[in-house]
Amino acid sequence: MPTKNRQQLLIIVAVAAAGLFVADLVVIEPLGKAWSTRSKRIDALRVQVAQGQRLIDRERSLRNHWTDWQQKTLTNNTSTAEQQVFQTIDRLSQEAGVTVAAVTPQWKRDSDDYNTYECRIDATGDLRQLSRFLYDVEREPMALKMDAIELGARDKEGQQLSLGLQISGLVLNPQAK
Length: 177
Known about the structure:
Strand content: 25-35%
Order of helices and strands: HHHEEHEE
CATH topology of the largest domain: Alpha-Beta Plaits
CATH class of the largest domain: Alpha Beta
Strand order of the largest sheet: 1-2-4-3
Number of strands: 4
CATH architecture of the largest domain: 2-Layer Sandwich
Structural class: alpha+beta
CATH superfamily of the largest domain: Ribosomal protein S6/Translation elongation factor EF1B
Largest sheet: 4 strands, antiparallel
Shape: elongated
């Protein structure tokens, strides 16, 4: 092979290699990244569609559950809501046999969607009575949540106990239509 042909062949091979390198940098690599990004986005969208379909399939159950929760919340009328909580505390304390020494209520405006009615209940009784009272408060269908519990002994033998219970009741504010 003559030297001139060999030089032309080497130049063609070098230009082709440089062209392939530039094509890789400019075309192939960006297309590969775009394809990979697109595939990940499609996978994420498929997951979201599947989750949405599951929600649609469970719509009736979720709506019934939400309606049930809404019915168990306290009323929007503050005095009626307070009365609901006081009557519930009185009923549960009588059923459990505990003595309620004090109930300290406080309203809290948490957001535009809901308020909470917090109460601290100070009660006394023996271990059986207080555990029954706590169980009944927890099982109460009204939207009450136990936030804090404090137990203390009132005598040396621990037969008489004191209970400090912090509960909160949920009040949903009606949505503007």
